[in-house]
């Protein structure tokens, strides 16, 4: 008995929009999000590739088929979402695995430890691109890497080489107010370096 498969015609269009030679930057950005890395250098270290290889693919917008497969196997994040951006990042078959994020603990103003933990992707706000976790003063913060003008909010900042998470308010004249209890102060935007915006906080109740 011969079994034949349905033949597709040239008029049929797949609902999935796979790209063969372009779309590399968007795909690499999704890979960073899946791993929870805030820099492409961290992805280089994870994949064991050189900075020049990363830079070459990024600049040429080359589609990273091999990196997408590696990321899917490492994190369990949906291959459909990784490759096309369609659907949701979490596969039903991998719900228990969670998103692999970096957890950075701040002690005495510096990162005292960095490890990787699993985090439920459903708890990550839509639109967050490069998230990681920070433990600071007994609380855990979900932080999204940030580049741009600072405004009112809670931020991961660096001041005189010391890292901290503070409530910051934007004042007229390009000045900021950094809340720190009795040690609150005002400064200019050039006095502090902002490395991330806090998007959620987990704290222990006494």
UniProtKB/TrEMBL annotation:
InterPro entries: Lambda_DNA-bd_dom_sf (IPR010982), Phage_CI_C (IPR032499), Phage_CI_N (IPR010744). One of its GO terms (molecular function) is DNA binding. It comes from the Bacteria. Pfam families: Phage_CI_C (PF16452), Phage_CI_repr (PF07022). Residues 104-199 form the Bacteriophage CI repressor C-terminal domain. Residues 27-87 form the Bacteriophage CI repressor N-terminal domain. GO terms for biological process: negative regulation of DNA-templated transcription; protein complex oligomerization. This is Phage repressor protein C, contains Cro/C1-type HTH and peptisase s24 domains. It comes from Izhakiella capsodis. The lineage of its organism: Bacteria, Pseudomonadati, Pseudomonadota, Gammaproteobacteria, Enterobacterales.
